[in-house]
Amino acid sequence: MIALLGAFVVGLAGAAAAALVPRAIRPAVSGGAVAGVGALGVVAGVAAMGGGTWSASLPWLLPLVGVELLVDGLAGLFIAVGGAVAVAAGVYGIGYSHHGRAVQATAPLFVLSVLVVPAAGSVGTLLLCWEWMALTSLLLVLAEHAERAEVAAAGRWYAVMTHLGFVAILIGLLVLAVGDGSFAGIRAAEHRPRWRGSGSCCACSGSARRPGSCRCTHGCPGPTRRRRATCRR
């Protein structure tokens, strides 16, 4: 739990710093924050896989449904994998990423959302974190929309597919949700096989309906012509 809280602190501080520091050091600040959040995510995930299960309830943080976090061994696996990828991306981004202030500040927030989604302990928390991940990743996809028309097209597809997935997950979880909307309650509930199958299929199809599942990421940010020309020289 301490490692995941540390990831929040590093991510939020890194995002704020990336928005304020001069352009010359912004990639180092943003990439360092991404790598730091990822490393803390690896620590939190490995600890959970080793039996360090924990939960937290924050009813005051979100009106009506509150925020419920639950990290067990399975969630720890996804958190550790996401954190490890973030470490590599952060180190790479220090030397590569030279996008604008908004993109650099968004990167640590996106990594945080990737770590929090597996830790969601209720329907409301999962939907909130999913939307957080969708919006921050959309900003990253649109990083070079002014330079390449393909990026703008990819961003439109990304937004549509991500929110179609959100709707499918919402429908599936509403079918399965009982009582306080926690996943523990969903697992303990005795649904009819028809309803359980329908809800599970909707939720799984929504999770799979990410832009990476279809060919709509061809325009994602890559080296610009100017940067490629510089590399050739």
Give structural attributes.
single chain, 233 residues, mainly alpha, two-stranded antiparallel sheet, 69% helix, disordered C terminus
Short structural summary:
The protein is mostly helical. Helix content is 69%, strand content 4%.
Molecular structure report:
The chain is mainly alpha-helical and 233 residues long. It has one domain. Helix content is 69%, strand content 4%. The protein is built from nine helices and two strands. A two-stranded antiparallel sheet has the order 1-2. Helix 4 packs antiparallel against helix 5 (123-141). The longest helix has 28 residues, at 149-176. The protein starts with a helix and ends with a helix.
Question: Which secondary structure elements does this structure contain, and how are they paired or packed?
Answer:
Blueprint: H1 2-20, H2 26-49, E1 54-58, E2 67-71, H3 73-96, H4 101-116, H5 123-141, H6 149-176, H7 183-188, H8 193-208, H9 225-232
Helix pairs in contact: 1-2, 1-4, 2-3, 2-4, 3-4, 4-5, 5-6, 6-8
